[in-house]
Amino acid sequence: MMRRLARFDLNLLQVFDAIHAKGGVSAAARHLNLSQPAISHALAKLRDALGDPLFVRQGNRLVPTSAARAIAGPVREALRGLDAALDAATAFDPAETAREFRIGVRLSGEMPRFSALALRVRSEAPRAMLASVTFRRRDLVVALANGDLDLALDVALPADDRLRRHFLGTEPPVVVARKGHPRVDGAIDLDTYLALDHIVATARPHGPGMEDMALDRLGLARRVAVRCQHAITAWQIVAASDMLFSLPRSHAEVLDAMWPMQLVDMPLPVEQGGSYLYWHQAADADPGLRWLRAIIADELGKSE
């Protein structure tokens, strides 16, 4: 095996990975800053070495064969591991790096988290690029393994041996009501909370919130009159009505700074959801990601 690897041109794997990720020779050439003939020549050598066409043309795209699909994940993970090993052998300097860091952030969590993180990263690494990237939970392991994401922020997820995680903390929810609300003045009791209509902001098309589950345990229920997808939309509705809206305190404080409301304590015990930072085990030794993980833990790791 080692003799076979010694004879293999590892540059061909970079070409394979680029074609697989970008879907064509031209796009791969642009990504690797090489000419199209150079990419085509490398692909021909790779096909010969592996005894498989690897990609077949369908319209304007090169579609991977079953053999290509089978090796795509291991090749991407191996290339990431090699990059991390080479990076680890050299000093990482945040002030000089021009690296792009891709952080998986759910839509509901971007507003209170990403702005503070971006400002901190910019202060220490002014040439770095930072991207907030949405993701599907079922694809998280693959996205972290193949480099589509470097890190991810999310709630507690099922354990996976391939992932590492760091607990960032919890925070209580607050109830938002407009200033001048006829039944809310700096505080709210449970009877008033149940008597008023509520807004839920979530990307999920249906299903209860944490408040509804807490109420259900008490044999109670609230009336959700409006369901929208974003907290800003819910905030606008609250500002022009007597409805109530609940969200984590850090989310509420960001919006309150722009559009002041009443933020009052929740009148019932709600289980506080924990927040976690996730990364792939292959990225443990990456000095750039160790630096970024430390920043995230310091900036966002505030539990209550």
Can you describe what's shown?
This protein has 304 residues and is of the alpha/beta class. It folds into three domains: 2-88, Arc Repressor Mutant, subunit A (Orthogonal Bundle); 100-170 and 274-300, Periplasmic binding protein-like II (D-Maltodextrin-Binding Protein, domain 2, 3-Layer(aba) Sandwich); 173-265, D-Maltodextrin-Binding Protein, domain 2 (3-Layer(aba) Sandwich), CATH 3.40.190. It contains twelve helices and twelve strands. The protein has helices spanning 2-6, 11-22, 25-32, 36-50, 66-88, 107-124, 140-146, 190-195, 210-217, 231-239, 249-258, 287-300, and strands spanning 55-58, 61-64, 100-105, 129-133, 151-155, 163-169, 173-177, 197-201, 223-228, 244-248, 262-265, 275-280. The strands form three sheets. A five-stranded mixed beta sheet has the order 4-3-5-12-6. Strand 8, helix 9 and strand 9 (223-228) form a beta-alpha-beta unit. Helix 2 (11-22) crosses helix 5, helix 3 packs across helix 4 and helix 6 (107-124) packs across helix 12 (287-300). It is elongated. The mean pLDDT is 87.
Corresponding CATH superfamily of the largest domain: Periplasmic binding protein-like II
Overall strand count: 12
Distance between the termini: 53 Å
Name the helicity range.
Answer: 40-55%
Radius of gyration: 25 Å
What class do helices, strands and sheet pairing give?
alpha/beta
Shape, principal axes of CA atoms: elongated
Strand share of the residues?
Answer: 15-25%
The spatial strand order of the largest sheet comes to 4-3-5-12-6
Family: Belongs to the LysR transcriptional regulatory family.
GO molecular function, one term: DNA binding
Organism: Sphingopyxis lindanitolerans
Protein name: LysR family transcriptional regulator
